[in-house]
Specification:
The radius of gyration is 14 Å and the shape is globular. By secondary structure, it is α+β, with helices and mostly antiparallel strands. The protein has a single domain (about 10-130), classed as Peptide deformylase (Peptide Deformylase, Alpha-Beta Complex). It has helices spanning about 10, 25-35, 120-130, and strands at about 45, 55-60, 65-85, 90-105, 110-115. It contains 3 helices and 5 strands, in the order ααβββββα. It has a 5-stranded antiparallel beta sheet with strand order 1-2-3-4-5. The two termini are about 25 Å apart.
Length: about 140
């Protein structure tokens, strides 16, 4: 189901809770909402659709991919950049890392560890920040 985007900074500033297999419908709602906003959105976190669970989705091309309970385990090559957010107006400066390693559960709740770089790494960091209550 396509959900409305939350713009309440107080809500977005709260840390998300760990997701369980009972939250699998949230993954589908995030993917549907990401697809509906494809013209101006490359990633979403569950709190952006009003659900305080540690679930994100991001796009690679036109394919939406989920991460459940993602955690950054390594990061290197910091750089300064500017980002926008579907939940906020305007662009803000932030520091990101060009190479990251993330541990997460896939859609089947199977543990994964993967390295990402460049634009994909930046998207994932932005969405993990949302899970941590960090609003840029």
């Amino acid at each position: 189901m396509v959900r409305s985007i939350v713009k309440d900074v107080f809500f977005l500033g709260q840390k998300s809770e760990l997701a369980t297999n009972e939250d699998i419908a949230v993954v589908d709602d995030l993917l549907d909402t990401l697809k509906a906003n494809a013209e101006h959105c490359v990633g979403l976190a569950a709190n952006m659709i009003g659900i305080k669970k540690r679930i994100i989705v991001y796009r690679v091309g036109m394919i939406g991919l989920p991460m459940i309970n993602p955690v950054l385990t390594k990061k290197s090559k910091p750089y300064e950049t500017e980002e926008g957010c579907l939940s906020l107006t305007g662009i803000r400066k932030t520091t990101r890392y060009d190479i990251i390693e993330v541990e997460y559960l896939d859609r089947n709740f199977k543990r994964q560890r993967q390295t990402f770089s460049s634009w994909t790494a930046q998207i994932i960091q932005h969405e993990i920040d949302h899970c941590d209550g960090i609003v840029i």
